[in-house]
TrEMBL record:
Signal peptide: none annotated. It holds the Pfam family BamE. Keywords: Membrane, Signal. Residues 43-78 form the Outer membrane protein assembly factor BamE domain. This is Outer membrane protein assembly factor BamE domain-containing protein. Transmembrane segments: none annotated. It comes from Nitrospira tepida. It comes from the Bacteria. The keyword Cell wall biogenesis/degradation does not apply. One of its GO terms (cellular component) is outer membrane.
Length: 134
């Protein structure tokens, strides 16, 4: 009887300590920051500063200049999604058994290209985007 109380007390102590340890930790919040057409359409506006664009979209893949030496930022993103599916079945009759397994996979590739053109004061003067999926 006494040993079961000790074990119970020990379990409660470990559980309480583990719970408190989890509450006291500082965890960095994981934020999925995905570059999408919707983000460009909804948040990029003519007149925004280059710093505001960089805060929203991150660093561009390519920075170049046009014929008047104004900056042009290009974001070029490619992603591939692959889905694997498996199904199996098993049937048995007292002694005999049979099993089968089917698998298939599909792959989808998406591209997103964003071109942001700045004026002499590093303000957005124009932007365009192209998205494909195949």
């Amino acid at each position: 009887m006494k040993s079961s109380k000790i074990v119970l007390g020990w379990c409660l102590s470990v559980g309480l300590f583990g719970g408190l340890a989890g509450c006291g930790s500082d965890r960095a919040e994981i934020k999925e920051d995905r570059l999408t057409v919707g983000k460009v359409q909804g948040e990029i506006k003519v007149g925004m500063s280059a710093a505001q664009v960089a805060e929203l979209l991150g660093s561009p893949n390519i920075v170049t200049t046009d014929d008047k030496r104004r900056e042009v930022w290009i974001y070029d993103k490619v992603s591939t999604d692959r889905v694997d599916t498996r199904s199996s079945s098993f049937a048995s009759l007292i002694i005999l058994g049979t099993s089968s397994q089917d698998s298939s996979s599909s792959q989808r590739q998406r591209t997103l290209t964003i071109i942001i053109k700045y004026d002499e004061d590093k303000q957005v003067r124009d932007f365009a985007y192209n998205a494909t999926q195949f």
